Amino acid sequence: MSSRARVYLRLGRVSNLPTVWTNVLCGMALAGSGVRAREVALVGLAVSLMYVGGMFLNDAFDREIDARERPERPIPSGLVSAREVFAVGYALLGAGVLFVGGHAYAEGRGAAPALASALLAGAIVLYDAWHKGNPLSPALMGLCRVLVYVTAALAAGGQLGIAVIGGGLALLFYLIGLTAIAKQENLLAVRSLWALGFMAVPFLYTMGTPLTGVVGLVAYGALAGCVLHAIRLLRGTRRDRIPRAVVTLIAGISLLDAVLIARSGASGAAALAMLGFPLTLAMQRVVRGT
């Protein structure tokens, strides 16, 4: 593999892509239009391009801060120019929107999927440009993932019903909690309780999932174990406890997707989504997820 390819893989945080794929799978399953492999692959590719593009832009916008705090990142270390990273990032975002729009046009599904993907692209750029020092950045990051659900649901010809909305809110609270918990130094402090409260919302929303069958029970238990493990890491004393907890919770997004899918009754798709968790962790050993 060339050195430039390795730099691009680092910039794109490609190890987290399985969580994007399970987001797409979940959005389609919750929309009630059925899960078709070809459609999952096509929309998954489009959203993957947008995710990687967003990660490129994240580094480009953060280049001055990274020069002080993370000088080993590709731009401040001189491995690639900010201009190139901006160009590639915006190109990937645009390609993703075009993929979704082209698919929707070919399937006769109107402009809604393209509009949703354009909103997703806009939210990604807004987050990348305005997440440092922004108290609303956790919610903005969560909104990006929710819009993946919306884009996938509409691209599959489904409806934005209560399942998509409820699942999207559960995902939003999970991501707000993920970001907030990762910033805490002492989870026993009173100021940490609100972060733990956000993480509790997805469990409350899906508390009936274990009753849907074996897959639902396993997915719910795995998600609980993932979050508890991350909390134990954050309460520890290891210097790398925060990044380890963050990458664990990122991988846990696939488990939440699996729980939501199982709740909708699609046990096969839920079992497939659960595989995103170990796959993400395995890929993070090769390419850092943060």
UniProtKB/TrEMBL annotation:
The keyword Cell membrane applies. It comes from the Bacteria. Pfam families: UbiA (PF01040). The chain crosses the membrane at residues 40-61, 82-105, 111-129, 136-156, 162-181, 188-205, 211-230, 242-262. Keywords: Cell membrane, Membrane, Transmembrane, Transmembrane helix. It is found in: Membrane. It is a multi-pass membrane protein. Gene3D superfamilies: UbiA prenyltransferase. GO terms for molecular function: transferase activity, transferring alkyl or aryl (other than methyl) groups. InterPro entries: Prenyltransferase_related, UbiA_prenyltransferase, UbiA_sf. GO terms for cellular component: membrane. Its main location: membrane. This is Prenyltransferase.
